[in-house]
Design goal:
elongated, mainly alpha, about 130 residues
Length: about 130
């Protein structure tokens, strides 16, 4: 298993998956309003009636984070920013908009798995 994590195949696939997750959630979910619940959550957290602009701004930042992951530039710093973003977003969502979440526990577990992938990618890339 360890040799697979150090393979070029793992690195390439992980980098694509990580970038794609951020671009999907930024572009489709937030900018294009493909998942309207995201806008509701942003509105609840910011206490605004029309959260469209703020949601699109968050979406743009997520797309840029995905683009950064796609480049593979400074993967450890990229992983640290992703970790800070996910932990911050999860905490805000759970404590300020928990009633709008499908499953807070499910979200946290999925994001822990995602961050495991992110850090495996970042740390292996650093050694390559």
């Amino acid at each position: 298993m360890n040799s697979f994590l150090q393979s070029g195949t793992f690195h390439t696939v992980a980098q694509f998956v990580i970038g794609s997750v951020w671009v999907f959630h930024g572009l489709y979910s937030k900018i294009l309003n493909g998942i309207p619940r995201h806008r509701l959550i942003v509105g609840k957290i910011l206490s605004v009636a029309n959260p469209g602009l703020a949601t699109r701004a968050i979406g743009l930042l997520e797309v840029l984070l995905g683009a950064w992951a796609f480049t593979g530039w400074q993967p450890v710093k990229c992983a640290a920013v992703q970790t800070a973003a996910i932990v911050s977003m999860n905490a805000l969502e759970i404590f300020l908009a928990g009633e709008l979440l499908i499953s807070a526990i499910g979200m946290v577990l999925l994001n822990l798995g995602f961050l495991y992938l992110v850090w495996c990618w970042a740390l292996v890339a650093r050694k390559a």
